[in-house]
Amino acid sequence: VLSYKELDEQFVKDELAQLNHVIDQDNESRAMVGKPALPHLAYGSKAQLTDEVIAQAEEAIKAELAAEGKPEKIWDKIIPG
Description:
Largest sheet: none
Number of strands: 0
């Protein structure tokens, strides 16, 4: 079994480009029926999720929870999800 840690960086970049290409094709169909476009993916593999990326995501989630008025004591239960 191949682990995501063993994936070549170029392979991961190419795979992300292919995933976003499929999204572009789907968006063409969605536009024909008046549905909103789907956004491109920023990451296509766990290999791209560095500690820095995860920390930034956690900070963004904390800011969103604060804006929603959620109590800080429950954030630790929400953020991992």
